[in-house]
Design brief:
mainly alpha; 5 helices
Length: 82
């Protein structure tokens, strides 16, 4: 399964599918609040992160493609596997 696609039976994982979605500049921009390359931090802040991604207000410079937001949403819905 790639980061961009997932089928109905797939369960995304942080290390396999989620971490790579965050660019180095995303990580650096947000380090004051949380580390987007840290499983524990992203798990802890998953709901506000998802809200920002769905609203299109984060990242600050462009919106994520809908398929990418869907993978993050699915990761949250399926229990945030490491
Ligand atoms: C996928 C990448 C990113 C995610 C998931 C993300 C997520 C978030 C979240 C969850 C907040 C807190 C919002 C709240 O609940 O108040 C936030 C705030 C903020 N982010 Fe990001 N961020 C990302 C990338 C960036 C980038 C690239 C920049 C710009 C350089 C940026 C700049 C900011 C700023 C300035 C705030 C504070 C806004 C405020 O005070 O209301 N973020 N971000």
């Amino acid at each position: 399964m790639t980061a961009e696609q997932s089928g109905p039976g797939d369960k995304p994982s942080f290390e396999g599918n989620i971490q790579k979605l965050f660019r180095p500049m995303d990580r650096e921009a947000m380090l004051g609040s949380f580390d987007l390359w840290s499983y524990e931090d992203v798990k802890k802040h998953a709901m506000p992160i998802l809200e920002q991604l769905q609203a299109g207000s984060m990242p600050c410079d462009e919106q994520w493609p809908a398929a990418q937001v869907a993978v993050f949403a699915k990761w949250v819905a399926t229990g945030m596997a490491k």
